[in-house]
Every structure is written in structure tokens, then in C-alpha cells.
Amino acid sequence: MAQVTDPRDGRIRSAVGEQVRRTKRFADETEPAALAILAVMALSLLGALVGFLAVSDWTIVPFAAFLASSAVGWVRYQEETAYLIALMMTVSTILILGLIVVFIFRESIPVIRYESATVYGITVPGLRMFIQPNWDAVSPPIRYSMVPMIHGTVMVTLIASAVAAPLGVSAALFLSEIAPATVREVVKPGVEILAGIPSIVYGFIGFTVLGPWASDQFQTTGQGSYLFVGIVVGLMALPTVVSVAEDALSSVPESMKSGSLAMGTTDWQTMTSITLPAAFSGVSAAVLLGVGRAIGETMAATVMLRGVPRLTEPLVNVFYGQETLTSIIARNYGEADGLQMDALFVAGVILFVTVLVISVGAQYIEWRMHKRLGGEI
Amino acid sequence: MAGAGRTDTRLVESETTETDAVAAVAVGLSAVLFALAVAALFGRVSLTGSLLGVQTVTLLGGLLTALGGTVIAFGVGSRFGYVETNPDPSAGLIAGFGAAVPWVVIGASVASQTLGLGAGVGVVAGVATGAVAFAATVLPREDLGSTVPLGALLGVTGLVFLTGAIGPTWVWELGWAQQAAITAEFLIPVSTLFSALYGGWASAKAYGGFGARGRHMGAYVLVYVNALSIVAFLFILVAFVVVQGIPGLLNGTEFGFGTGPTTSVFGVSVALPVSVPFLMNGVALFNDFQGVLPAIVGTVWLVVGAVVLAVPLGVGAALFLTEYAERGRFTQVVEVATNGLWSTPSIVFGLFGFAFLIPRFGNGKSLLSGMITLGFMLLPLVVITSREAMLSVPDEYRDASAALGVSKWQTIRSVVLPAALPGVVTGVILGVGRIAGETAPILLTMAGGTFVPGSQTADVIGGFQFTSAPPFVANPELLQATSALPYQLYALITAGVGASSNVGNADEFRWATALVLLVVVLSFYAIGIATRYYFRRRLRHT
Predict the structure, then answer these.
(1) What's the CA gap between B506 and B14, in Å, rounded?
(2) Any CB–CB contact under 8 A between B312 and chain A?
(3) Three-state DSSP state, B182
(4) Which of A46, B145, B404, B456 has its Cα between 20 and 30 A from that of B476?
(5) Phi and psi (nearest 5°) for B467?
(6) pLDDT the model gives residue A196
(7) Residue A376's pLDDT is what?
């Protein structure tokens, strides 16, 4: 073990050393007055952040100091000030992600403690949320199970992927390989506009038109079915799949395609045996991102589902739609407090972690594909 | 065929044009069936009624059977050399799977339901039927393989409709604990739809004479149908909302001087020459016509606030990543973080705003919390698009500027930023379109009230006050709950029937709200897309 970690340790140390040297060089080259102003800016912004986190009324003071020092810096040492401000803005994007993680996790802790379960004599916090299917916030025993919502999300996501993946990949092929330029100029903005239609409008149409129609067709009691929520959500995830898959397909080098066409293949043969295999990982990343969108879709599901957190009977009954992880939050935040509110945060944590894993996975796949395609040319 | 002479070839060619025509008719027939199926699905064609003097179901069945027969005849004719084609030895595995799927469904449902043998036997029978279809597709030469199983599928479906085995009143009770049934109203159009797609695929292959060219035709037909359906879907969706929303929107609209409300422009009060009460009123007891003005103003302020927060942050971050930072761990982490933020579900942003912002801004829902939450949502989009725009600025520009001896920041300010501006602007506009329609984040952070009186229209600029206690600046307008269009629509939907007592016709009111929301969001998109075209054209000219 020691031999394995040593080189990495050394690398980190040398990287840190490099950073220190660079900072020192920067400090040596920069005028002391400019350095002082940069220091004031950084410290005052840090102070403002701390004040904000501590819910202090005095937050405004360090923030004003930051603004004033930035103004002075901007007038006298624009070069250095611009650099520092850009750096701070970059750090803030990471900070926001960090804050989201901290705050939604922190809020969910009490209910995770409450829902502890004992397995083989070991108490596992939060386990009871996943091993029994009861959600009851009113009458004892009060239980906050995530199982019905996970079931709902899985059903909706499966149906949505079945809609969005084939249609989206086919549309991406059309846009990047098949369509004549003029047709593409019409269809492409069309797909973008499809992405722009607010989810609540989809939900409204689903609620007023699709819902009653579906309950009529399938003779169900009341309206709201996973099947139609899934189809609507799939249509909403479609633009994501199309645009990412199109990027992947058009990143396949033209030389590969023309090499194949020169062998006398048809366009379709080139697509199936050259373009699609070469872009396969990018296309699967597109589908993954589409799945991520479908999991996180809220309003259409909230409006179209029944809002009763329970499993459907039998489990494959897609003609009934109970509740998903997203819709339970949107529906219950109003009257919830205490443990129930924390349980909603647990739903949020599950969503956040799942989608983050999907996003990172998709990025890794895309990165590998670019590296490979880049290496092959 | 190898020794075919010149005359022989000509004869064959004239023959193929005729058979081409047959295959083209088959493709056309599939298109007609597709259109009929869609029309029947949405109740535009009644299944119990009749069409062209024939019962609808009988007509569908007849057309399907005819199409299936044509497809099979084409394949068999090609196999025995009556039709000149270039088939491959096998139709391929993908075609095999394509043909197997519907046969699995048919086999399973016939065995388990029609013959009543139970679910276990049904599964076995389905797999067996599918395997037969798969083998029948993959094993024979392509002309038979890609026509016979699909033609048989069409024929079976058609005959089932023709014989009345599945008539307009047919129902299959699923017998589940939560009651559900599959009715003819659903099954007939849907099976016709899929059959038509399969028929179109097979006959397009035949039209192309099988082989590589045939597959090319078959695939292109499906891809074009898909693209066309997506565009058609978009048009129908927008047109539907417009048609439903117009009556409510134009309720009580008046034209003419002095009809509109009075506004002051640069201190001069002007009466607008048009009055659209829906856009210019709130909800009040004594209004002739109710409207959604507070929600519109709320949306505008939300967008302004989110842009003010996210655009400088995002552009600054993109600038640092592209111009200052060397590619390495740090930039990678930031990239992963921004992409992660981009795909984070909107409701999670709402939860975050609820836990983080609300306690810090007066412990209640507020416009300011909504602005910041949406700003956080907009941020990753701004970073990603600005970054792309900056990366696409050619390095020659930077080098040329650096060669003049100016500092890095001056290069960025006077070369990189202006060159990247079009991309950044387009990205921001499209991003704004996206967040303007978001409901979930503001649900938890900002919005309250279903019907908002006009007096509650947020007046942010007039609301600033200076106080002697920290934080010295206060703006009650920013710190109170207000409405926004997407939330208003959600509240109207959930309010249900009770809503009608407040506004004359609740349904009209809802559709009009949806229309206004759609117009607001889509106009952002239209502007964004138009900006992109404008800049692209200008770039091409210079």
C-alpha cells in the first residue's frame, strides 16, 4: 500500500508546491497596494458569506466593503481585480452545488433518524423508508416510506425512456445526417421550441384533455395514470435526447463517413455501420441525460397524478398513477411541517443524488468518446 | 441472371417500373392507414360509425388485409423471380427483432386470454411465436424474410377486424385489483397504427428492391415519419392552446383612443389606445373582466432578478475557465459541477431555496427568494453557453492582440468578450425562456394566492426604503409573496371547480393564462433563435 500511495502523495505535494510558488510569484510581481485591495475584497466577501450563512442582519456591511474595495480596485488595478472577480465567480458555482448538498441533506436528517430499522441486531438509519410501503403522515403509526414514490418514478421513467430514446435518436439522425439544409433549419428550432414549452402547460393539457380521455379508454376509476404521465414526460425529455445525440453524431469525423461512402455504401449503411457505432457512447449519454430529465420532471406529474402515495395493484398496473418523488414534494410542501417536511427533503435527496450520478456518468461517457475519436483521427 | 443480355435487361427494367408502382401504392396505403389510425385515436373518426359507406372497423380491416397481401405477394414474387430485386441472403437481426416483438404480443395474448390457458402458458406461447417470427425473418432470403412475417402480421390484424373478433364494443377486463380494461377504442387504432408502420417499412424496403438500397428506403421512411410527427405534434400543441386561450384572452377587449388604462411615460400620462382587461387587470370583486396582471409583472421581475444574478456570475466563471485557468483538476471539477447543476431537477432547487433562502429573507415566501432560486437555475446554463461562445473565438484573435503588447485583461475586454457576445446573448435569452416557465422552484420559494388582486402588483423600484437599523436597505415589495404566470396556472388547476365563483368562466380563464404563459416563453425562444440567425448571417457576410 505504501508504495502505491507514495507517488500520488508526491504528485499532490509537488502540485501544492507549484501552487504555492505561483502564488508567491504573483505576490512578488504585484504591487503591494494592489495586493492589499485584493486581500480586502477576498476577506470582505468571505465575511459576507459567513454573515449570510449565520443569518446576520450585519451581512450588508462586509458586502458593502466588498463592493467599495472592488470599485477602487477596478479603477486603479483593473487587471488584477478582474482576475480575482472572475475567480470568485468560478468558485461560487462550486459553492452553490456544495450549499445545495449541505442544505438538503441537513434537512433530511431527522426523518432518517426516525425511520431507523434494525436488521440482524444492527440499527440502520433510514432503512425503514425502503423496506415497507406505507406512507401515512396523519394516523399512527406515522410512516414515511419512499417505496411508492420510487415505484412511481421508476414506472414513469421507464415509459418516458421508451418514448424518448427511439424517437429522440431517430430525430437526431435525421437532423445530423439525413435532412437537407432547409428542412433542418425548420426542424431544429422546432425541437428547441418543444424544449421551451413550460411543463405546467403540458401538465394542464394532460390534466384537461388526456386524463379524462385515458380514464374513459381504459375504464379506470378516476383519472391519472403512469402510462400517460410517462408518455408526456417522454415527449418533454425528447428535446434533450435530440440535441445531445445530435452533437454526438456530428462530432464523428467527416473523414470516417466519407471513407465509408467511397466504398459504395448507401447513406443508411454508413449510418448504421460507421456513424452510430462511433457515436454510440455519445448517443447513450444523450439517452442517459434524457432519463435524468424524466426523473426530475415535476409539474406535469404533479398535475396529472392522483396524489395518493401508495403502490399500484398489481405493480405493473400502469393505468393508475399514484405519486412520484417529484410530485410528492410539489403537492405536500404546503401543509407539511416537522418530520413530514423532512421526509420531502429525503425525496429531494434521492432525486438529487440519482440525477447527479446520471449526469456525471453521462459526462464520463462523453469525455471518453471525445478522447477516443480525437485519438483515432 | 448472370448471363442476361441487353434486351433481357430492358425487359426487366420495364417490369420493375410497374412493380415499383405497386410497392409505391403499398407505401401510400400505409400512410392512409397511419392517418386513419391517428384520427381514430383522437376520436376524429368514429369506430362505431362508417366511412365511405363501409363500417370503419371493416374498412380498416380490409385495408390492412390488402396491404398485408400486397406485401407478401411482393416478397414471394421476388423470391420466384417475377420481380427483379437485389435481396441480401438474410434480412438481418434487427429486422428479426422488429418482426418478433409484435408476434410475441399476439402469441402471448391469444394463448393466455383467447384460449384461456393462463399467464405462464401465455409467456411460453408468446416467446415461441416470437421465435418463429424471428426465424422466419432471419433464415430465408431477405425478400421473403422481410415481407412474409410482417405481411402475415398485417393480414392477421386485418382479419381479426374483418371477422369482427375484435369489434367496436370489444372489451378486455384485466381483472386487476385496481380496475382497468383495454377497450376496442384504444386497441383498434393503436394496433392499426403500428401495423401501418410495419407495412410502410416492409413496402418501402420492397420499393427499394431489398438489399442495401431497400433497407435505406425502409429506414428513411420511418425516420421521416418520426421527424414529421414531432413537428406536427409541436404545431398541434401550440395551435390547440391558442385556439382554447383566445376567447378568454380577448374577453372585453376594446380598441380606440382613451379606452385603455392610463400610464405615465416620462411624467406624461397617456391613455393606451387598446384595452385588454385580461392583461391589464388583477382579480377584484367589482371588475367587469378579471385578469392576470400581477402574475405577468411577477414573471417579469423574476426574470430580471434571475438575469441580474446569474449573468455576471456565469459570464465571469466562463471567462475564468476559458481565459485564465489552465486545464486541469480545478476546471474539470467546475465543469462537472456546472453540468451537475444543469441537470439537477427543478424541484430540488425549490427545496434548496426553501431551506436556504427563506430563513434568510424574512421567514416567508418572497419575490427575492424566487429570483435567487431561479438565478441559481439559470447560472449553469449561462456558464455552459458562454464558455462555448468563448471557446469558439479563434486563438488567432488572442495572439494578434497579445502581439500588440497589451495585457491579458485588455485582450479579453476588447477582443474576446465582443467576439463571444452573440453566443452569450443567445444562450442567455434561451436560458431565460426556460426558467420563465418553471413552476416547481417558485412553488416553494415565492408564490402564494390563487387570485391576486391588482393592488398586489409588485412595484419593486418604488419599494426601496432606507432604514436606520441593519441591513439599512429594505424593500418590502421584494420580501412579500407574489404570483407568476406558471404558478398562477398551477394554482388555477389545483383550485378546481371552486375557482369559477371568482372569475366568470374558470375554464376560459385557465386556458387564457396558459396562452399568455406560452406566448411569453415562446417569444423569448423566438427572440433567441432570431438573434442567432442574425449574428450567424452577419458573420457569414463579413
Answers:
(1) 66
(2) yes
(3) strand
(4) A46
(5) -120, 165
(6) 84
(7) 45
| Whether residues B351 and B470 fall in one domain | yes
Q: A residues 266-325 near B, CB within 8 Å? A: 266-269, 289, 292-293, 295-299, 302-303, 312-314, 317, 319-320
pLDDT tens-digit readout, A79-91: 888 888 888 888 8
| Boundary of a domain, candidates B463, B488, B513 | B488
Residue of B nearest to A59 (CA): B471
Segments in A251-324 forming alpha helices (H): 254-262, 267-270, 276-278, 280-296, 299-304
Q: B297 with B223, same domain?
A: no
Cβ atoms of residues B368 and B305 within 8 Å:
yes
- Closest approach of A11 to chain B, Cα-based (Å): 13
Contact flag B233-A235 (C-beta cutoff 8 Å): yes
- Residue B122 or A352, more confident: A352
Q: Which of A330, A312, A314, A313 has the alpha carbon at shortest distance from A322?
A: A312
Tell me: ipTM over 0.95. Answer: no
Q: What is the distance in angstroms between the CA of the first residue and the CA of the last residue of chain B? A: 59
Type of residue found at B379: L
Asked if B458 and B449 count as a contact pair (C-beta separation under 8 A), the reply is no
Question: CA-based Rg of chain A, rounded to a whole angstrom?
Answer: 27
Q: Among B210, B234, B258, identify where a domain stops.
A: B234
Residue B274 lies in a domain: no
* CB A218 within 8 Å of CB B180: yes
Omega before residue B394 within 30° of 0, cis: no
Do B46 and B186 share a domain, yes or no?
yes
**What's the CA gap between B187 and B193, in Å, rounded?**
10
d(CA A108, CA A342): 5
- A247/A233 Cα distance (integer angstroms): 22
Pairwise CA distance, residues A153 & A158, whole Å:
8
Contacts 24+ apart (CB under 8 A), B469-474: B469/A57, B470/A57, B470/A58, B470/A60, B470/A61, B471/A57, B471/A58, B471/A59, B471/A60, B472/A60, B473/A60
Minimum Cα–Cα distance from B234: chain A residue: A194
Whether B37 and B152 map to the same domain: the answer is: yes
Q: What angle do CA B516, B517, B523 make, to 5 degrees?
A: 85
Please check whether residue B240 lies inside any domain of the structure: no
CATH number at residue B306: 1.10.3720.10
Residues of B in contact with A19 (CB under 8 A): none
Same domain flag for B226 and B303: no
Residues in chain B: 542
What is the domain count for chain B?
Answer: 2
Residue A5 pLDDT? 47
Q: Does a structural domain hold residue B542?
A: no
Task: Check if the beta carbon of residue A178 is closer than 8 Å to that of residue B220.
Answer: yes
**Dihedral sign from CA coordinates of B417, B420, B421, B427:** negative
- For B310-330, the pLDDT digits (tens) are 999 999 999 998 888 877 788
Q: Are both B359 and B461 inside the same structural domain?
A: yes
pLDDT digits (tens, 9 = 90+) for B55-72: 888 888 889 999 999 888
Structural domain that includes position B56:
6-90+140-234
Contact B348 A351 (CB under 8 A): yes
pLDDT score recorded for residue A11? 65
Distance CA B429, CA B438 (A): 15
Which of A346-355, B53-62, B349-358 shows the lowest mean pLDDT across its residues?
Answer: B53-62
Quote the strand ranges of B403-456, DSSP E.
Answer: none
Return the CATH superfamily for domain A146-376.
MetI-like (1.10.3720.10)
| Residue B412 CA: distances (Å) to CA of A77, A272, B211, B322, B382 | 15, 44, 57, 10, 18
* Predicted confidence (pLDDT) at residue B5 exceeds the cutoff of 60: no
Note whether B361 contacts A: Cβ–Cβ < 8 A.
no
